[in-house]
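Board notes (copied after class):
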Amino acid sequence: MKKWIRGAAFAGIIAAVLMRVYHILAWKDTAGGYISSMQQLYNTEEELIDVVFVGSSHVFSGINPAILWEKDGVSAFDLSISGQDKDTAYHNLIELLKTQSPEVVSDI
């Protein structure tokens, strides 16, 4: 019984350490409170996004979804990263479509 308790405690400690290490080493954007676009997506409620932007640095630096919301009431999401290639954009879009049904997807 003691071995089981020690094993469970060891596993719990390892899990806590790995979660902290992941938080430290995880990719961090320079916008959005230092969380990545995918983390923002996973924290977004289902069926909330109307417009999605995918692409490279032109979209990453040139689109501000907050302005679309303030001026037109359109909920937009910027799923781009600097230097994003088409394969990454495709797979990110597939991941987005698991929880969202946007009316428009743009790859400016």
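Comment from the instructor: Helices lie at 2-25, 37-42, 57-62, 65-72, 86-96. Strands lie at 51-53, 76-78, 104-106.
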